[in-house]
Amino acid sequence: MNDRVTPPMHALPDGEAELSLVVKLPWEDVARLGQEAGRLATQMQRPVTLDEAVSNRLRSTRPSAAHAKPAGEQTASAASGAGVTSLPRISGTA
User: Fold this and answer.
1) 54 Cβ contact partners less than 8 Å away, ≥ 6 residues apart
2) Roughly how many angstroms between the first and final C-alpha of the chain, as a whole number?
3) Which of 77, 76, 75, 94 shows the shortest CA–CA distance to 86?
4) d(CA 38, CA 70)
5) What is the pLDDT along the chain (94 residues), one digit of tens a residue?
6) Is the alpha carbon torsion for 72, 73, 75, 79 positive or negative?
7) Contacts 24+ apart (CB under 8 A), 34-37
8) Which of 50, 61, 71, 90 is 20 to 30 A from residue 83's alpha carbon, by CA?
């Protein structure tokens, strides 16, 4: 049982949203996240968490948030239903 009482989502003052979730990943993907965290730590010249590495990776690979635009402004990919399943893998090695 998990005793955390963190709300699953809340708004941040900078206009972003913070989501709390639990995901099951193969150890290989966890290792890739660790490598991503190492690269990010080198780039930022400070330690980073896996959470930061995931957030950075999602931001660097995401297309525009077309799904969040009014219906008349959606792009073809949003209208066709492309979603999380279309996100690239964390590393080029699969």
Assistant:
1) 33, 36
2) 33
3) 77
4) 38
5) 556 666 788 888 999 888 888 889 999 999 999 999 999 999 999 999 998 998 888 888 766 655 565 555 545 544 444 444 444 556 554 4
6) negative
7) 35/91, 36/90, 36/91
8) 50
